[in-house]
Amino acid sequence: MRLLLRKLWCAFLRKNAMQSGRFVGLYRKFCRPDGEEWAQFLKRHHILYQMGEDCVVQMNVEITDPKHVRLGNNVRMTGCTLFGHDGSINMLKKMTGRCLDSVGKIDIRDNVFIGHRAIIMPNVTIGPNAIVAAGSVVTRDVPPNTIVGGVPAKPIGTVDAYLQRCEERTEALPWRHLLAADNFAPATEELTRLRCAYFFPPEESAG
């Protein structure tokens, strides 16, 4: 009965959040939408300046100025922060009595992945087919087909080369037949068994 009530409660919250933008805090707390669902919410209610199709935005993504952010198609973000302004301006205004402002857009083009704990600063454009490595601080534009990493972020490779390495490694995996091209493979018992046997061979486990 308790499980049924929880499902009904979540269905009520999800419907109201998606249709009218109501009870968003409760919706996030109890329904825990995944990145695809949360991106649909952001797009449906025009939270960002613009958002393309097939985006994934995990709930732990922090966007300080959503109306300054534009996302292309197939943008994936997890646990990162997008800063649209310089918070020190308020301190400087109070200190000097001057009229100051420091805001900027963040423009993320098609087919971009931004890793966990990466920080994107204002006035940055991330070109199409790019990857921002986890923990990076991006302070300048990222060229197309580029992987950037570090603090501050610098080019560390190309997406084309990384894709080729991934394809070569994948072909050698014993669970290759269980993978799908359009998404992560579900963590089935067979997939978990094959991966554990591959990662921890018997001779290593025996030690």
Structure summary, number of beta strands: 14
* Strand proportion: 15-25%
**CATH class placement of the largest domain:** Mainly Beta
Helix-strand pattern: HHHEEEEEEHEEEEEEEEHHH
CATH architecture of the largest domain: 3 Solenoid
How many domains? The number is 2
Q: Which bin fits the share of residues in helices? A: 25-40%
The CATH topology of the largest domain corresponds to UDP N-Acetylglucosamine Acyltransferase, domain 1
Kindly report the spatial arrangement of strands forming the biggest sheet: 2-5-8-11-13-14
Unreliable stretches, pLDDT < 50, 5 or more residues? none
Structural class: alpha/beta
Shape: globular
Determine the mean pLDDT: 91
Describe the main β-sheet briefly: 6 strands, mixed
Intertermini distance: 48 Å
Spell out the CATH superfamily of the largest domain.
Hexapeptide repeat proteins
Radius of gyration: 21 Å
Q: What quaternary form is this?
A: single chain
Helix run count: 7
Protein name: Acyltransferase
Family: Belongs to the transferase hexapeptide repeat family.
InterPro entries: Hexapep, Hexapep_transf_CS, Trans_hexapeptide_repeat, Trimer_LpxA-like_sf
Organism: Methylovulum psychrotolerans
